[in-house]
């Protein structure tokens, strides 16, 4: 065959598999449906007058918390819920409103994160599927208990203690060296526990699940990408449970965290390779311990 003839041959690319689009369609459809539902059912809470009155000092505080929490999560691969919850509790927000606000905000931040990780091929699909169902079960159970059964004032000091434990886990992660890979056992139980504690404590999916898997020597790229992708389902399930059983309250908390997260996301993407991870990880852990101790002393 002559060179001239070979140049006329066109390579026809294979059509992408339909399943590929589901990774994009599902988060977009779910978030669009959520926005429409909130606008229809809670439009009276978002009048121009109420929104103007709500844009005060407290909203700015929640906005800054959202930015900082996203910076922590974006640079360390974990800690959004723990960081934002510790600050919100320290600022006087009750646990139910705090956890609901964090998880409704995370519906949007983790949705964007899941799409990004899929685009950059940071996902182990088998690991995601193994985490999602048990994680959702645990998160729904925790959200239901906090929204409809447990008294937020009673559990607040226990959540502060839990946040100290999460902070210690984060510090240990910062000090840990690379480990030899071990086979993951009881992945479903790990996901159930991570989802439950994430909902009832306002954070913990990343520190519990990601730290455990990384501690077993798993590849950081695929572990962080897969756990963050599964977190979208966990956040969505717990957020919907809070809305169904407790309704929407503290819209300034939600709006501040969402807008702050959108501002912090590109900043963290820029800083992720420019700042030393180990000292920042330890610094964040120490800060969370300080905030949790302050909540306990109150």
Can you describe this structure in just a few lines?
This protein has 13 helices and no strands.
Task: Spell out the blueprint of helices and strands.
Layout: H1 3-7, H2 18-41, H3 48-54, H4 57-76, H5 80-91, H6 95-119, H7 125-148, H8 152-175, H9 187-201, H10 205-215, H11 220-246, H12 251-271, H13 277-297
Helix pairs in contact: 2-6, 4-5, 4-12, 5-6, 5-8, 5-13, 6-11, 6-12, 7-9, 7-11, 8-10, 8-13, 9-10, 10-11
Q: What is the strand content? A: under 5%
Number of domains: 1
C-alpha geometry: globular
- Total number of strands: 0
Number of alpha- plus pi-helical segments: 13
N-to-C SSE series? HHHHHHHHHHHHH
Percentage of residues in helical conformation: over 70%
**Terminal CA distance:** 84 Å
Going by helix content, strand content and strand pairing, the class is mainly alpha
Q: How would you sum up the major sheet?
A: none
Low-confidence stretches are 9-16
Q: What is the rounded Rg?
A: 21 Å
Average of pLDDT: 78
InterPro entries: TM_pro_TauE-like, TSUP/Inactive_protease-like
Subcellular location: Cell membrane; Membrane
Keywords: Cell membrane, Membrane, Transmembrane, Transmembrane helix
Transmembrane segments: 21-42, 54-72, 127-147, 159-175, 187-210, 252-273, 279-297
Explain the overall architecture.
The chain contains 13 helices and no strands. Helix 7 packs parallel to helix 9. It is mostly helical and 298 residues long. The longest helix is centred in the C-terminal third of the chain and has 27 residues, at 220-246. It has one domain (48-297). It has helices spanning 3-7, 18-41, 48-54, 57-76, 80-91, 95-119, 125-148, 152-175, 187-201, 205-215, 220-246, 251-271, 277-297. Helices cover 79% and strands 0% of the residues. The model is unreliable at 9-16 (pLDDT under 50).
